[in-house]
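This part of the workshop introduces the protein records we will be handling. A record pairs a protein's sequence with a compact description of its fold. Comparing a sequence with its tokens is the quickest way to learn the format. The record below serves as our worked example for the rest of this section:
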Amino acid sequence: MALIQTDFKIASWNVKGLNNGIKRKKILTYLKLSRVYIAFIQEMHLCKSEALKLKCSWVGKVFYSPGTGKSRGVSVLIHKAVSFAETKVITDKGGRFILVYGQLLDTPIILCNIYAPNADILAFFHNLSQYLLELEGAQIVVGGDFNQILDQDLDRSLPRRGTESKSVVAIRQMTSDLGLNDIWWTMHPEGREYSFYSPPHNVYTRIDYFISELYVSPVMSLFSCVSAASPCVPTSLIRAGPSAATGWGEGRQDERHAVEESQRLITSVIHQIGLLTHSE
């Protein structure tokens, strides 16, 4: 089943605040130059009245679950070129998740962006799973900052043994109930990528994910960008295209080239707009 007839990219980015107008403009410019068509933003730190500032020249629709001026807040930005008609939007009061249900071209789809709590709170993922289960008949794309390590061996630079958190157990149950898969590991069963670095522990981890049904995206490229000096870099990117009609295997032939091309683009854009030198 084809999701969309032209190539597009979905990016997930924990921006650590968008209160500063200059930083906000640079991030939106970065997404535009990176040719992102759907953006999942976490920790925008914008209240309801300020969230609409995210609508700019290339953004056609903004959906948001506002946080406060200093914490939380998530949003979904959709490019003007994308044909999307929303049917239902579900948000939480804490600014930690948003579900946008609608039609992407002729395909019913749920776009779910999350910024999960740092604490091991079982109810968060349990409630999220219930919302998704109630919205039947649509393809599901869940992305964002899960604040959990799903695999202690593969998602940590220093593997650690121990009992899985309640949240991880809930995530596994959710993916099982909904038939979702970690797209990165589906494509790279023997690979490793990290999206977060902890200087105190000197360890890299992957806590940002895209989980979805396999047929939603052939995934020509999916990668993570990590910088100890600047956590303000998109953590995940997914590109889907016409090969969705025939499966994602064909896309893997060009996967390495696509990843290298995208990484070069990110480096170029960072230098162009100075994200690494600007702090809020």
About this structure: The chain has one domain: 8-277.
